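Because discrete structure vocabularies remain unfamiliar, it helps to consider an illustrative case, giving the amino acid sequence and backbone structure tokens:
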Amino acid sequence: MKKLRVGFIGTGAITDLHYLGYKNSPLVELNAICDTDPELLGKRSTEWKVKKSYGHYRELLSDPEVDAVEVITPHHLHAEIGKAALEAGKHVSIQKPMAVNVTDCDDLIRTAERSDRLLRVFENFRYYPPIVRAKELLDDGAIGEPLSIRIKVVQGTGGEGWEVPYRRWAWRFDPIKGGDGRVILDYGYHHFSLALWFMGEIEKVKAWITHRPIQNGWILDSPAVAMWKYRNAEKYGNYEALTSDDLFVPSKYGRPEDEWIELSGSRGFIWINRCTSHLIDRPPLVMYRDGKTTEFDDLDADWASSFIAGVADFAIAIKDGRTSMLTGEEGKAVLQFCRALQLSAKEGREVNPEEII
């Protein structure tokens, strides 16, 4: 098939992982890049041997040789750029979250419907091989009827001499640029997307979130605890996030945070033991059923593989004329979930995600 010609709008740190999906790919070609930082733009152009580079996203969008774009900017720009790209006739993949409020989510969805172009919200965890296998097992009834989900996430340190790269994190802690919620929105979006994917729609949530000052005057929304009830079923989920500067988290990609997930069923359990890093030195996926434990130690457990698979799915979905995870509606539902947790903690009550409009 003819390669899909893609432009990156934004070339920050996370694009190192996005680019792996383009390197030597038979499906996609990184045709152009855009960034407001001339130094970074030049560095990426040389590093990736990209044909064209632009200083403003509208210049890239006017390029007829760009079929699709990946929007990889600070969160507050996602909706503005995504809408402009759809109106320019480009297929669009937006790094999560798709927007920082529901109004912008709805606007993006409507714009995509009018444009007849593909809009997808890129959430790489849903492409991580151990998580994909866990979903297959759950859907196949491997542990019986799904009953609950438990998600644990930790943030620590990369070891001696490691420090938070200021450029990478500063905008994430800016309430406007980052959307207000480094843990619950920026990082937690991954986890709450999985909670919906594995078990279905959420009826109500209850959360407790600590907000505390850290370096550079930033405010961190951790530790945090949340629980939720699934719609039309006596099924529940819970989430715990903690942060410790004394906790060493082995990280291949410079992000010392990790997560593990337990899925409970009527006949057994599934444990996903890592994703972002390698904190737990056990097989990435383990299942217990009917007195027997099965370890899936032959799965690809490299976090980068989730980005490679996600890029490929975007190209194939466009070729096949189908949707790609997450759809606009799914992306909106995850945002409502995140915001419902924040509202619950703020007001000290149960919140229905549909209240978030």
About this structure: The longest strand covers residues 236-248. The CA atoms of residues 287 and 293 lie 6 Å apart.
